[in-house]
Amino acid sequence: MIQWLLVPVAYLVGSISSAIIICRLLGLPDPRGQGSGNPGATNVMRIGGKKAAATTLAGDLLKGLIPVYIAKLLEVPAELLALTGLAAFLGHLYPVFFGFKGGKGVATSMGVLLGFSWVLGVAFMATWLLIYKAGKISSLSALVASILSPVYAWFIVGNISIVAVSLVMTLLLLWRHKSNIQRLLAGEEG
What we know:
about 190 residues; mainly alpha; globular
């Protein structure tokens, strides 16, 4: 029964905003008030450069990966593993420590997928990289990789709980990227 504590702990870990913490540590402005206003790696790159963005990306990825990895080490059932990953992801989107206003979730979902299966995580990253190399649009790369992640989960992991959580994360990512999608459709995203 104590294993169910993984879910709220994963949410709390997900609620730690790498972007805000990195910006504070580096003396940069709060990313929620600069650039796109999104506390994520892409916006941190705009206001602080590549090193700050890479550190933010790593932090966001790890807060998805670590709770799932711990759950795997504890050999929890697949349903609890999936819920642990979803909780970390939801913590990033709706962080309790930052007024429930978080990032868009791409790096954290990548960490969750890596935790579920390293092959699944690599498939997500490879898709993102391939689309980015072709079009140089980060949001488009994230959207395509996210849309394909439930399909990858089906073929790579094959567990319905993992597939379902991958699908839920995809739907939430699409929702969080609605302004990017509108700009993409209008040819204004770059």
